[in-house]
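Minutes, project huddle
Topic: does the predicted pose make sense with calcium ion bound?
PN asked that the exact inputs be recorded in the minutes so nobody has to dig through chat later. Recorded below.
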Amino acid sequence: MTKKTKILVVEDEAKIAEALRAYLEKAGFAVVEAADGEAGLRSFDETCPDLVVLDLMLPKISGETVCQELRRVSRVPIVMLTAKSGEEDKVSGLTMGADDYVTKPFSPRELLARIQSILRRCGDGISPMYRSLSWNEGDLEMDFESRELKKNGAPVNVTPSEFRILSTLVKYPGRTFTRDELIDSALGMDFDGFERTVDSHIKNLRGKIEDDTANPAYILTVRGVGYKFGGTCAR
Ligand code: CA
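Predicted holo structure (tokens), as shared on screen:
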């Protein structure tokens, strides 16, 4: 069974948030809501959503700051809701790292179309802004559109599950994932004994991308918790 795509809606206007939830759920998405910037960041960390709908004017922490913070810790697609329609604001939004904008007042239908368009352009849930990424001065490269992985310039053969696990880790660089969370975020399925399967995927991946599997540079073990990504990205 494939899991539902999870959307985090950060919006302080309860009416809009409720309408969005109803509309997006009807369209088949799972929806998580947060009513201010602080709650938005917390929910983001707790739920690892597949896409964030982010209002610009928010209590506690502004949408701009939330967007910058999300970009610091993740490569998820972000759609901003903004009451400002000036071109300058759109440009400043783009520099912040959002993938698209919808100007209030908007129809839920328009927002849904934008969301679906971005999700179609995402490779493995990574924002279209990052079609390809490289780490440690080009030692490791991932192309999310063609689903290619390169180590030291040479193509590496990985299974779809391995590619998805690695995509999940690089989507949230530095975040530690438990085995359960990795199954949920990367594979979206569950069955008995799968935690051990994660370990075997990780072992195989390390064999393919690490110079020294005993001292990994990319897939780091966080003792007693799980795994996190340790590569250094230029952007
Ligand atoms: Ca608002």
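Observations noted during the meeting:
- Residues 83 and 105 are 7 Å apart (CA to CA).
- The mean pLDDT is 90.
No decisions taken; revisit at the next huddle.
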